[in-house]
Protein: Glucosidase 2 subunit beta
Organism: Saccharomyces mikatae IFO 1815
Amino acid sequence: MVSASLLFLLIIGQSPLVVSLQQTRGYKPGHIVGVSREKQHLYDSNESDLTKWHCLDHEDIVLDLSQINDGICDCPDGSDEPGTAACEEDIFQSVAKQSSKVNKYFYCANENFIPRYIRKSEVTDGICDCCDCSDELLSDYKLIDVGSNCSQLKKEFDDMVSTELLRYREGKKVLNGLEKKYGIQEDTIVRDGSIEEDKQRVSNEITLLSNRLEKDRVKLDEARRIYFDQLENQDPILYRFEQLNRLSLASEIVNSFVTVSMVSKCYGSILGILNRLSEAYTPSLNDKVVNDNIKKFKKTKRRAEKAKIIADSTIDDEQSENLFSYFTEEIPQLFLKRESEQSLRYVLGKSNFVQALIEGKINYTNDILEYIKEYSAIMDDISKNYNVNFQDAGVKSAVDSYNNYLDEYGESIESGPIHPSENLLKLLNEVTTFVNENVPKILPPDITEPKQGTNNDHMAPFGGLRTKLSGILSKLNLFSFREDLVSLEKQFRFYEMEVKNLDLELQLKKARKEILDDSRNEGNNATAGKLTELLELMGSQSYSLEDLLDNYSYTIRFQHPMIEGTIYQSENKIAGKKVLIGRFKTLGFNAELNMNKYMEHLKLTYSEESDLTSHLAGRQGDDDKSQHYIFGNLNELNNGLVLEYENGEQCWNGPRRSATVFVRCSNTFKIRSVHEVTKCNYIFDVTGPLGCNKTFEYEPPKFNLGE
Ligand SMILES: *[C@@H]1O[C@H](CO)[C@@H](O)[C@H](O)[C@H]1NC(C)=O
Ligand SMILES: *[C@@H]1O[C@H](CO)[C@@H](O)[C@H](O)[C@H]1NC(C)=O
Ligand SMILES: *[C@@H]1O[C@H](CO)[C@@H](O)[C@H](O)[C@H]1NC(C)=O
Ligand SMILES: *[C@@H]1O[C@H](CO)[C@@H](O)[C@H](O)[C@H]1NC(C)=O
Ligand SMILES: *[C@@H]1O[C@H](CO)[C@@H](O)[C@H](O)[C@H]1NC(C)=O
Ligand SMILES: *[C@@H]1O[C@H](CO)[C@@H](O)[C@H](O)[C@H]1NC(C)=O
């Protein structure tokens, strides 16, 4: 007998898949289409007449076994059609809630891959939704889209998992490195019940610190009062000098030089990458992008050499240190002791030189920045457009180095010109003017150089003698009370430093307590504590993420304490508008958001040529509506880190701006995308090592590897 289905088979060809169709038509115990192995037994006959069967949820309705999966819905609970779309989908919605027997979804066995449940509406529609096409076995449609088979998917899945695990391991490595770099200890905070213990410990520390600070403040006030009383009476010049805020000046200078030194490092780094590249690449491969850019680099480098561009962070750091001690020790000691090993002219010359050096150096940094930008643009073009197929090891290694370079210096490349702060210029000017006016009053005059044409030869020794004399005299006169002043000054400075350090420490502890106390931070436990600490330490070195997306530049800046962190959005043009998106509020973990974001990432990364990810979305077996993903626990390689920001600038006619920053595990920090979810509320997709779950162990899903 030539059946209709055989005819169908002849029409659509000889695919092995369709051959099995013929065998599945009709009732075959243990092989009911759309039913999991565990539930097959429900379709065995349970009647005295072994050709009969009753609906699973309606024992009174008895059918022939051949009516199972025959394409006609006979049972009110739909149980006779587990492998076709004959029964209305809503039947299952209500029935499956009460019955654990009736499956709401179609079961794909997917031999060689991962079994999953799909919706009944996807069954027998001409499209294979199961990789074994079991959902189309009972179909009368011609197959439109077969898709990848299960063996293929298994291979793609394994590749995906190994790529993801590699990315995870690299991210974790960087995270460990960061923790080491910033001295976060493995187990100081991670203890059982650590949250409460931590709170208690921090509270105790705050009390202790506050007490010490209060006592030291009293001592400081006393020391200051005595010192200044003495000073006012006995040394008006020093008294006025003390009114100048030279500590603040010194720290402004150090701050500026941190930037200067970083720019120098950045310059050295990019120049090194390009120098190595220009030696290591293979010109004969004729990768136009690479060859043209190397030419451009050599031209730029020659120009830099002509302009005598020198950037050396070691020199910068040394200068910074010297300047600091100049303003905090050398000059104060000069006024305090009223003597110098150097001549007056030297002292004055140095004072003017220092002023010019500071201004000039900061200014000069902008020249270096210009070259950094040019070099970076060259590497940028190469890394985006070089021909991957040429497999040029020199180029590949340069591109890798460039990516690391971006992680480290990305923000400085984007930064505009650097200026000395107004406060710095003002303080510098005050101190320099004061020194120039007053040093001649406290130091003996120099031996005057003999002027030409005048008969001064005999004056020289006389001048020298007078200088010596006045030196001795001033020492004699001042000796007794100078000693006092020096020791008073020492004491005053000592307490000043003590108070400053204690105050800083106390502020940090308080910020830490605030985070621990924040009850909305439910996930805030040991991991959160460690990440917060790490972010703060990074913040204390002004760490920030900056990326350009859709013509806007976004900057996520971490601070110490964390609560001072901000996100800004700037228009990427000259004099563009800059808007505060939010201030840091809390740090936590969100497993659900992680799942959504991770799936988004997998789809984007692995679905270009494959339908793998669509085979990873499964329905729950029985009565759970929600979709889930069947890739084992792969999503847990992310810790689900979420940073919340609030209280940004008010939107026009709207709420204040706010943002959620989701961090996905990766070895590189980067802002990947920004979406405005609701009016003035943004979600940032960021990658970075902080998003890695350090305790993650991969558990694969259950594969169906046959019997
Ligand atoms: C067969 O039916 C009886 C009564 O209806 C029930 O108690 C029994 O569990 C059933 N057996 C199977 C295998 O479903
Ligand atoms: C699955 O597809 C691949 C590639 O099309 C093919 O080589 C392989 O034989 C197929 N496997 C099965 C079991 O059909
Ligand atoms: C800084 O550089 C600009 C332009 O190169 C120049 O006009 C200015 O005078 C410089 N300022 C100082 C203090 O060197
Ligand atoms: C801390 O939070 C992380 C992320 O939510 C979680 O994985 C971990 O199990 C938690 N640890 C404790 C001790 O609660
Ligand atoms: C970015 O700006 C350029 C030039 O103004 C414009 O052509 C482009 O469409 C903008 N892109 C987006 C995504 O807004
Ligand atoms: C981290 O991984 C472990 C083991 O795989 C898991 O138990 C834990 O829940 C994960 N943490 C998070 C935050 O997902």
